[in-house]
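Exercise 7.
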Amino acid sequence: MTEDAKKPGAIGIPGILRGLATTARTMAKPTHTAEYPDAPPHLPPRSRGVIALLEENCTSCMLCARECPDWCIYIDSHKETIPATTPGGRERQRNVLDRFAIDFSLCMYCGICIEVCPFDALHWSPEFEYAELDIRDLLHEKDRLGQWMPTVPPPSALDEHSAEPAEIAATTRPGRLVRTPAARLAPTRVTAADDTSRQEQTPETGE
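Solution. The predicted structure, written as tokens, is:
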């Protein structure tokens, strides 16, 4: 600490003046206060608001529920037998989704469930206005999760310099040429007469 700072009143008056000067400069600038909820906020395109469910894409594989670190996803399903479509064919079984619920009072919005879903049944929606007075109402069933799907923004366009997706590349790739094995020649039996004729046709060379 300097000698001037040790004097009584050396810091008080200059500090107050600097604070008043900062206040005066700020008063002349326009305010940046968002008047929410009268003015909706401008959110980034990939905001994590709420998780939406596309029910027809869900196969009840339970992968999202197993990978969730908070165990806030609840899935119930049953198996349904599909009769054979052709005579003599085999019957098939498929999973039918009975319940799909997410408890947003436990969810930490990590997005792991969306990343691991192999059939794109879960999507991020930027909607965030679903606060409740009762914490038990934050348990959203599949009907309410499906209502968020219209608010899911479309995926962003791919970069023109990025690699072509594997799904598209597989459909546009030319077919492979299948090489057929060369036909084997049938073994021929050489007789003594054929051997004698070959020796007569071959000219003898002398030294």
